[in-house]
TrEMBL record:
Main location, first listed in the record: membrane
InterPro entries hit by this protein: Yip1_dom
Bilayer-crossing regions: 35-56, 68-93, 120-151, 163-185
Protein name in the entry: YIP1 family protein
Species assigned in the record: Undibacterium umbellatum
Keywords, alphabetical: Membrane, Transmembrane, Transmembrane helix
Pfam families: Yip1
Recorded topology in the membrane: Multi-pass membrane protein
Source organism, top-level taxon: Bacteria
Length: 409
């Protein structure tokens, strides 16, 4: 087994690769030594570099770095727990098999668990820049799709029960990973305000509902892979680059195809004043990478007493996978420290994220409207009530009315 080829194939052509994996006689220690350990080391090492060497920016405080010893401890524990986690999740998958008409087989369960983690481990390189680490959630969601494809092949679960088997396995696995994350956080500096948002609840039905979108995404990934192979055979570097860019766009944008709302429409939703704060800047932009499209409008407000508000509206182009990147639909959190608090949940059915420092220096309130519009409001030297009032000034109902705009049938 070649690690690079296996990782590439399980991500780009998973349906074919699971059939190859099914008949392999893989020794457990070899699977861990030659595949799991090298890939699991990527997020552990990258996170250490990102948090302890590069550091992360905190408003009013500048760049903060975790102490080296704490960073090393967290890195080692993260790596060890990744290995243990794969093994425990494999035991879980095997134990659940009879409940869904599948065949108990510890060796096959271990393979399906290990290889399903591939995209999440590879995306761990994003932890070099802590601000990008949330993109790893998207890779984790693709891992759910890989699990969904692998269970019928390796565990012989009937296709009609594969979604339920996947959903229950994922929910139970999340509970396992929550415990691990909490332990790592307690050692590696999880007490630092604003770090380590951990889901405290996950909904089986929502996990299962995501699988349809993931399946569409998987089919597009296979199509993108074929285009990459054809471009490679052509020997045209420009064609290869174009195909690779399209594949990345599919991975980021998921299965939805839509034209984003015009940036000027988004700019029009940002008011000229919010209470005593006057708008002093207004910007709009649109960008695209393959099928992944984004439009954004941003405004800044301030008064003479240095009270500041920044509001941004980002249109993800109707991409449900990009919205799922924030995992709000599957997360709840209520965390409080001496420095501040952080909450994740839903308000009027919309996923929300709220964070505030008790000294009133900074705070933010974000929510997802219509499954595609991300409204982010950040404030300095203002209270949370002011931040939420500023957010509501965007007029969520108007955004909601545009949720299907540009989406192709």
């Amino acid at each position: 087994m070649n690690l690079i080829e296996r990782a590439k194939n399980i991500i780009l052509t998973p349906q074919k690769e699971w059939l190859v994996i099914e008949v392999e006689n893989t020794v457990t220690i070899d699977l861990f030594k030659n595949y799991v350990a090298p890939l699991a080391a990527i997020p552990a090492v990258a996170s250490f570099i990102g948090m302890s060497i590069i550091g992360f920016s905190v408003p009013m405080l500048g760049t903060i770095r975790l102490p080296i010893i704490a960073g090393i401890s967290a890195m080692v524990m993260s790596f060890v727990f990744a290995l243990i986690g794969v093994y425990l999740i494999a035991l879980l998958i095997d134990a659940l098999a009879p409940q869904f008409g599948a065949t108990k087989n510890p060796a096959q369960a271990l393979k399906v668990a290990a290889y399903s983690f591939t995209p999440a481990w590879l995306a761990g390189i994003l932890s070099l820049l802590p601000s990008l680490s949330m993109l790893g959630v998207l890779a984790g969601l693709y891992g759910i799709y890989l699990l969904y494809l692998g269970l019928p092949v390796l565990m012989k679960v009937p296709q009609e029960k594969a979604a339920a088997y996947t959903a229950v396995s994922v929910v139970c696995s999340i509970l396992i990973m929550i415990v691990f994350t909490m332990v790592v956080g307690s050692v590696g500096g999880g007490s630092i305000y604003g770090m380590g948002a951990i889901p405290t609840a996950s909904r089986t039905s929502e996990t299962a509902g995501t699988l349809n979108e993931l399946e569409k995404m998987g089919k597009k990934m296979e199509e993108a892979s074929k285009k990459m192979d054809d471009a490679k055979k052509s020997g045209d570097p420009q064609a290869e680059m174009k195909a690779a860019t399209e594949a990345l766009g599919v991975a980021l944008g998921g299965s939805s195809q839509a034209e984003v709302v015009d940036k000027d429409k988004l700019k029009a939703l940002l008011p000229e004043t919010i209470g005593d704060l006057k708008r002093n800047s207004l910007e709009g932009e649109k960008s695209a990478m393959g099928e992944f499209k984004v439009a954004k409008a941003e405004a800044r407000y301030a008064d003479e007493n240095n009270h500041q508000i920044k509001i941004s509206i980002t249109d993800t182009g109707g991409s449900k996978m990009f919205g799922a990147m924030f995992a709000w639909g599957m997360m709840e959190q209520d965390k409080e420290t001496d420095a501040g608090y952080e909450k994740m949940g839903k308000v009027n059915g919309r996923p929300t994220h709220e964070r505030f420092q008790k000294d009133g220096s900074t705070g933010e309130y974000s929510l997802l409207v219509g499954g595609r519009f991300l409204v982010e409001t950040r404030g300095e030297n203002v209270d949370m009530a002011t931040i939420k009032t500023a957010s509501a000034a965007v007029a969520y109902d108007k955004l909601e009315a545009m949720k299907n705009e540009g989406i192709k049938p």
